[in-house]
From TrEMBL:
Its EC number is 6.2.1.5. Binds 1 Mg(2+) ion per subunit. ATP binds at residues 46, 53-55, 112, 117. Residues 9-264 form the ATP-grasp domain. This is Succinate--CoA ligase [ADP-forming] subunit beta. It comes from Alteriqipengyuania halimionae. Keywords: ATP-binding, Ligase, Magnesium, Metal-binding, Nucleotide-binding, Tricarboxylic acid cycle. GO terms for molecular function: ATP binding; magnesium ion binding; malate-CoA ligase activity; succinate-CoA ligase (ADP-forming) activity. Pathway: Carbohydrate metabolism; tricarboxylic acid cycle; succinate from succinyl-CoA (ligase route): step 1/1; One-carbon metabolism; formaldehyde assimilation via serine pathway. SUPFAM superfamilies: Glutathione synthetase ATP-binding domain-like (SSF56059), Succinyl-CoA synthetase domains (SSF52210). It comes from the Bacteria. GO terms for cellular component: cytosol; succinate-CoA ligase complex. Succinyl-CoA synthetase functions in the citric acid cycle (TCA), coupling the hydrolysis of succinyl-CoA to the synthesis of either ATP or GTP and thus represents the only step of substrate-level phosphorylation in the TCA. The beta subunit provides nucleotide specificity of the enzyme and binds the substrate succinate, while the binding sites for coenzyme A and phosphate are found in the alpha subunit. The lineage of its organism: Bacteria, Pseudomonadati, Pseudomonadota, Alphaproteobacteria, Sphingomonadales. Heterotetramer of two alpha and two beta subunits.
Length: 399
């Protein structure tokens, strides 16, 4: 789960980490009031969407020369003008895709006199089973270019959770940022605070870009992004309440209500599979046969008829779907239960696209008989390779 910048800064502040003063706003009037609560005379008005590149982004509804989603304002009137231009309009960045995201929230913060910008992030390194802390002296909007063109300017420090954060980790971060004196000490303290927040809140990623040094040599978190392990949210109700469903794909939100793992993709073959590994293999073999998957959808090991029906409805809400491939291996899940769900779903949604089903495992023969006796045009497949070939051929035939 992702949260907005202002929410992430609230969490960091709770861990004693320095952030500029700021207030969230849902309306132009709230943005003006937020600015009035800040010392000024420089303010920053930031669009709050779950995507990076806001500063370089463009609004669909505004002139091409209009400023992006992060703007400096030198008066309350300029704050008001920026808020009127941003709220309700669609911001397109390198991370949103061409469709962009509508701006429904703003964050008005105090301006900072910046002396230098740095980059600092933490994420789970699944290869090593450790936490990776990544630091660079080249923070700011062009960090992607730094990673591509000058990777030597990026340093990775790995931390074993079993050992925990040690003083040498903090020194390594300060050294990587080339800080001396008091700012060196600040960086060591900050690195420890960030690591503790990362673990305590079960984050998957914490990115600070930029981390800035102001003219008084204070380190401040100027912008931050956070994502959390969805499986651990039950332990952090305060974080769970920060979820903004308007920033998520509606189909993915609906899928989560049925405990389905769904991610929309760009292809035309809808997939319903049980097990993440099997789902990945299914998507690969669809592509091997010349088509592209329209989604990743894992119904899990204990799917019911209700869940299978919901999965079908979610898949078919994507107008790009021209056919569906169901690939089920019945271990915990029974093939006859899945077959009943498929038949019920096909009837409920008045299925109008080709459907190929491959069943294997517990009660497979009973499942196949249910499909055969359903009276529906369901194509049965013997194995995964056969299923992929058949759904691609059926889609081409239907076209």
């Amino acid at each position: 789960m992702n949260i907005h910048e202002y929410q992430a800064k609230e969490l960091l502040a709770e861990h004693g980490i320095a952030v500029p003063k700021g207030h969230a706003a849902l309306t132009v009037e709230e943005a003006v009031e937020a600015a009035k609560q800040l010392p000024g005379p420089l303010y920053v008005v930031k669009a709050q969407i779950h995507a990076g590149g806001r500063g370089k982004g463009k609004f669909k509804e505004l002139d091409a020369n209009a400023k992006g989603g992060v703007r400096l304002a030198q008066s309350i009137d300029e704050v008001e003008e920026a808020a009127r231009e941003m709220l309700g309009n669609t911001l397109v960045t390198v991370q949103t895709g061409d469709e962009g995201k509508q701006v429904n929230r703003l964050y008005v913060t105090d301006g900072v006199d910046i002396a230098h910008e740095y980059y600092l992030s933490l994420l789970v390194d699944r290869a090593s089973g450790k936490v990776a802390m990544i630091a660079s002296t080249e923070g700011g909007m062009d960090i992607e270019d730094v990673a591509h063109n000058t990777p030597e300017k990026i340093t990775t420090i790995t931390i074993d959770p079993a050992q925990g954060f040690m003083p040498h980790h903090g020194r390594a971060v300060a050294f990587a940022l080339k800080l001396t004196g008091d700012t060196n000490k600040q960086a060591q303290k900050l690195a420890k605070q960030l690591y503790e927040a990362f673990l305590q809140l079960d984050m998957e990623m914490l990115e600070i870009n930029p981390l800035v040094e102001d003219k008084e040599s204070n380190l401040l978190v100027l912008d931050t992004k956070m994502s959390f392990d969805g499986n651990a949210l039950y332990r952090h109700k305060n974080v769970e309440e920060m979820r903004d469903e308007t920033e998520e794909d509606p189909a993915e939100v609906e899928a989560s209500e049925y405990d389905l793992a769904y991610i929309k993709l760009d292809g035309n073959i809808g997939c319903m599979v049980n097990g993440a590994g099997l789902a990945m293999a299914t998507m690969d073999i669809i592509k091997l046969n010349g088509a592209f998957p329209a989604n990743f959808l894992d119904v899990g090991g204990g799917a019911t008829t209700e869940k299978v029906t919901a999965a079908f409805k979610i898949i078919l809400k994507d107008p790009a779907v021209e056919g569906i491939l169901v690939n089920i291996f019945g271990g915990i899940m029974k093939c006859d239960v899945i077959a009943n769900g498929i038949v019920q779903a096909a009837k409920d949604v008045n299925l109008s696209v080709p459907l190929v089903v491959r069943l294997e495992g517990t009660n497979v023969q009973a499942g196949k008989e249910i499909l055969e006796n359903s009276g529906l045009p369901i194509v049965s497949a013997d194995d995964l390779g056969d299923a992929a070939k058949k759904i691609v051929a059926e889609v081409k035939k239907a076209a």
